[in-house]
Amino acid sequence: MQTSLHDLQTATKIRIEHAFQRYISDRGDSDLSSTALFKAVEYSLFNGGKRVRPLLISLVCEMLGAQEQDADTISLAIECIHAYSLVHDDLPAMDDDTLRRGKPTCHIKFDEATAILAGDALQTLAFEILSDAKLSEFANARRIMLVKELALASGLRGMCQGQSLDLQSTKKDISFESLKTLHTLKTGALLRASVRLAVLVCPNSNKDELATLSTFADNIGLAFQIQDDILDVVSDTETLGKPQGSDQDMEKNTFVSKLGLAGARKELAHHHHLALQALDRLPYNTDGLREFTDYMVTRTF
Predict the structure, then answer these.
(1) Which residues contact 158 (CB under 8 A, 6 or more apart)?
(2) Cα angle vertex 177, ends 175, 179, to 5°?
(3) Can you tell me the distance from the alpha carbon of 215 to that of 197, in angstroms, rounded to the nearest whole number?
(4) What pLDDT was estimated at residue 1?
(5) C-alpha torsion sign, points 121, 108, 189, 136
(6) What angle do CA 37, 41, 44 make, to 5 degrees?
(7) How do 99-100 and 103-104 pair as beta strands?
(8) Residues 6+ apart with CB under 8 A from 136
(9) What stretches of the chain adopt beta strand conformation (E)?
């Protein structure tokens, strides 16, 4: 019987937590658990979340026949980067948010200095994991490629650049193409990296499949952000787990502010179609990725 997307998502969340605890335990770092910094790191890494990126990694790895251990390692690294980005995004110097996933943000739960250090620690932990955690023989030979892929996605050419563009464009009018570029970097880069890291640990993958899945991920990244922008308008704080309407209050450029609600939904459908179209070119059973794609554009939080 095929595992449902919901069951796989639940199993993925559990595996990520186990992978983190196993990694800390294997290195004899159990004494860290009593420190304020460790508690802030753990709080930020496991403060809820949909685990969209590890789920995507699991689906690609399952489709291409990668080992579960490799999927868990790259998933944990990706989640460390994602968690660090959220901790820093929430800081007073950036979005100044007090709620994340319905709970106090890291700097509210602890303090601003601890939150900054927790983000720093999560970022470096991601690369420690990729360079040091257990991998299959095939994936182990590709460690430097994995590190490079994640570094490109998270730094000056990826997520950090997207966040910078977002901050610079707040309360300013930017073009639609500039908005797409911003979110291709800020939101899409880590989703693209998730797919590419998964392909890199799969012995049977090739360059054409990497390019096709990258196109798929690019469209999923934009669709994910468009749905976020729509939910910021039509949902509520309790459902979202963060203040509803915060983007509008901060005068951020969004797909809804640019296109209107109907136009944003049309753009969402467009990228949904392009993502599914990319999957049509793959010689595999893509049912899991198709269900994931549908989930990304219909989710309610």
Answers:
(1) 152, 185, 189, 190, 193
(2) 70
(3) 14
(4) 42
(5) positive
(6) 135
(7) antiparallel
(8) 66, 67, 69, 70, 201
(9) 99-100, 103-104
Length of the chain: 301
- Residues 155-186 have pLDDT tens digits of 999 999 999 999 999 999 999 999 999 999 99
Percent of the chain surpassing pLDDT 70: 95
Q: How far apart are CA 19 and CA 75, in angstroms?
A: 9
Position with higher pLDDT, 251 vs 60? 60
Residue ranges of domains in the chain? 5-298
pTM for this entry: 0.93
CATH architecture of structural domain 5-298? Orthogonal Bundle (1.10)
Cα–chain center distance at 287: 21
Q: What is the mean pLDDT of residues 87-103?
A: 92
Structure tokens at 3: 């595992």
pLDDT of residue 94: 92
CA 93, 95, 98, 104 torsion: positive or negative? negative
Contact of 191 with 53, CB cutoff 8 Å:
yes
| Cα–Cα dist 301/290, whole Å | 19
> Contact, 187 vs 162, CB < 8 A?
yes
CA distances from 213 to 79, 220, 276 (A): 20, 10, 11
Quote the CA–CA distance of 241 and 26 in Å, as a whole number.
34
**In which residue are the tokens 């040091």 written?**
132
Q: Which residues touch 298 (CB under 8 Å, ≥6 apart)?
A: 227
With helix as H, strand as E and coil as C, how does 46-75 read?
Answer: CCCCCCHHHHHHHHHHHHHCCCHHHHHHHH
Q: Residues 208, 220, 133, 40: what is their CA dihedral angle, to the nearest 10 degrees? A: 160
Q: What are phi and psi of 69, to 5 degrees?
A: -60, -40
